[in-house]
């Protein structure tokens, strides 16, 4: 599958054609054949918003997992709170993307405390209940531990239910280990959890290198624009055109 919005739209159509319902982590049991679409937002909230617009136009909803501890984006900034709001207005929901590496060595209790803390932060930020958590680059230890979050009241997307009783497939590192379209066509599995990273998708196909390069450049310009808001007459020190020479 290509990393374009058109390819993603075709995947959605394929899922519909084969009789699967688009579900979330709480309601999938109501359906015979279910697909949960999960998006982990690792770098760029704007890309998440773009993908939610594609989904809205296709009449489906999915769940976007956002980081509270990202070095790339701050969910509490006004601009980003508006983006999160817009994703919800597109009919999608939000979950916590938890990065355990942001904490020094933590035992199971420390892990649970950190997750609880981040859920509370995200809930305060979006003014909505958070009912699911996915892990960023999950460690083998956390995966095997099958940890309950808030005594099981909050869904762990890597819990047994969603890894063993669902067919779990992902486009991590911009690579599908298995052919997602083939799996849908074969209808061998009744339940899917599909992880898609919005970061890699564009209207026009881009290579991994182009995607990463344009992201780096965009970040540098965004950094300049932020400095411009903070330092009077920034261009007396540095012109925007001088950022890349
Ligand atoms: Zn991640």
Explain what you see.
Strands 1, 2, 3, 4, 5, 6, 7 and 8 form an eight-stranded parallel sheet that branches. The protein has helices at residues 5-17, 45-58, 78-89, 108-126, 140-145, 160-163, 180-186, 208-230, 234-237; strands at residues 21-23, 34-41, 63-67, 93-98, 132-135, 155-156, 167-170, 191-195. Helix 2 (45-58) runs parallel beside helix 3. The two termini are 37 Å apart. It has two domains: 5-200, Alpha-Beta Barrel (TIM Barrel), CATH 3.20.20; 208-242. The protein has nine helices and eight strands. Zinc ion (ZN) is lined by residues 40, 42, 97, 136-137.
Q: Which short descriptors sum up this protein?
A:
single chain, 245 residues, alpha/beta, TIM Barrel, 2 domains, eight-stranded parallel beta sheet, 15% strand, globular, binds zinc ion
Distance between the termini: 37 Å
Instruction: From the alpha carbons, calculate the radius of gyration and give it in angstroms.
Output: 19 Å
- CATH fold title of the largest domain: TIM Barrel
The portion of residues forming beta strands comes to: 15-25%
Bound molecules: zinc ion
**pLDDT average, as an integer?**
97
What's the CATH H-level superfamily name of the largest domain? Answer: Glycoside hydrolase/deacetylase
Largest sheet: 8 strands, parallel
Give me the strand/helix succession: HEEHEHEHEHEHEHEHH
> How many helical stretches?
9
**Oligomeric state of the chains present here:** single chain
Helicity, as a percent range: 40-55%
CATH architecture of the largest domain: Alpha-Beta Barrel
Structural class: alpha/beta
- What is the overall shape? globular
CATH class of the largest domain: Alpha Beta
Total number of distinct structural domains? 2
Uncertain residue segments: none
How many extended strands?
A: 8
């Amino acid at each position: 599958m290509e990393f374009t919005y058109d390819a993603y739209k075709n995947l959605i159509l394929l899922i519909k054609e084969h009789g699967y319902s688009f579900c979330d982590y709480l309601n999938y049991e109501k359906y015979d054949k279910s697909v949960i679409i999960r998006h982990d937002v690792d770098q760029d909230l704007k890309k998440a918003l773009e993908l939610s617009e594609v989904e809205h136009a296709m009449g489906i909803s999915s769940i976007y997992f956002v980081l509270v501890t990202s070095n790339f984006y701050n969910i509490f900034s006004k601009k980003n709170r508006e983006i999160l709001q817009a994703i919800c207005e597109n009919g999608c929901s939000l979950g916590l993307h938890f990065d355990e590496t942001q904490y020094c060595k933590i035992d199971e209790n420390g892990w649970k405390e950190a997750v609880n803390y981040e859920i509370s932060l995200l809930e305060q930020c979006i003014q909505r209940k958070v009912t699911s958590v996915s892990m960023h680059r999950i460690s083998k230890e956390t995966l095997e531990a099958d940890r309950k979050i808030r005594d099981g009241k909050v869904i762990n997307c890597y819990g047994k239910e969603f890894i063993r009783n669902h067919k779990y497939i992902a486009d991590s590192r911009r690579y599908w280990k298995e052919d997602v379209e083939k799996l849908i066509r074969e209808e061998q599995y009744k339940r899917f959890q599909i992880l898609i990273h919005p970061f890699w998708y564009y209207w026009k196909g881009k290579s991994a290198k182009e995607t990463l390069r344009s992201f780096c450049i965009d970040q540098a310009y965004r950094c300049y624009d932020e400095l411009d808001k903070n330092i009077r007459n920034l261009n007396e020190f540095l012109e925007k055109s001088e950022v890349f020479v």
